[in-house]
Amino acid sequence: MTCADPGEITNGHRTTSDAGFPVGSHVQYRCLPGYSLEGAAVLTCYSRDTGTPKWSDRVPKCALKYEPCLNPGVPENGYQTLYKHHYQAGESLRFFCYEGFELIGEVTITCVPGHPSQWTSQPPLCKVTQTTDPSRQLEGGNLALAILLPLGLVIVLGCGVYVYYTKLQGKSLFGFSGSHSYSPITVESDFSNPLYEAGDTREYEVSI
């Protein structure tokens, strides 16, 4: 007595102990690389009290095998739930940030099946919130300093230039006030009559 031929499987192959599939024989199934076997790997032909012999199980299937997603890592200043080294296709991973930090990016990412499987997006980042970021406070102080310092320099330089030119003008106004040896010039005239007739002449004495 024999069992009926159980058949081949897609994306796999089989080995048999007896070509005729007699009672007691068995068939072993294997899948090609990249596929996983779903079901019993070995089928055995057994005899029943009544009727024809039957296989011990159904023929298995070779399903596409997905490589797991690797853990993308924990963001700095943050953490993740259910930390594992590998995640199967369809599994999700959730991220959180510590107090004082805000999450930038996707909170939850999912492992998408493939060859290899991949995450739906890159892991998020944890950045310092604006209210607690000391660098932002320093930026504000630096901005005020950057504005006030040049303004102060302009004022100081302006005052210096004003004082310099004021002193320079003072020297030009009073630079000739010193004593010099000049002989005075005197002019003596005697105007007994300021009115003159035509043809009149007058003599003047000038002493130096």
Automatic annotation (TrEMBL):
Keyword Amino-acid biosynthesis: no
Taxonomic superkingdom: Eukaryota
SMART domains, alphabetized: CCP
Regions annotated as coiled coil: none
One GO term of the biological process aspect: regulation of protein kinase C signaling
The keyword Repeat is annotated on this UniProt entry: yes
PROSITE patterns: SUSHI
Any single Gene Ontology cellular-component annotation: neuronal cell body
Domain Sushi, first and last residues per copy: 1-64, 67-128
Pfam family, one: Sushi
Transmembrane segments: 143-165
InterPro entries for the chain: SEZ6_CSMD_C4BPB_Regulators, Sushi/SCR/CCP_sf, Sushi_SCR_CCP_dom
Annotated keywords: Disulfide bond, Membrane, Repeat, Sushi, Transmembrane, Transmembrane helix
UniProt xrefs under Gene3D superfamilies: Complement Module, domain 1 (2.10.70.10)
Protein name, UniProt field: Seizure related 6-like protein like 2
Organism of origin: Pipistrellus kuhlii
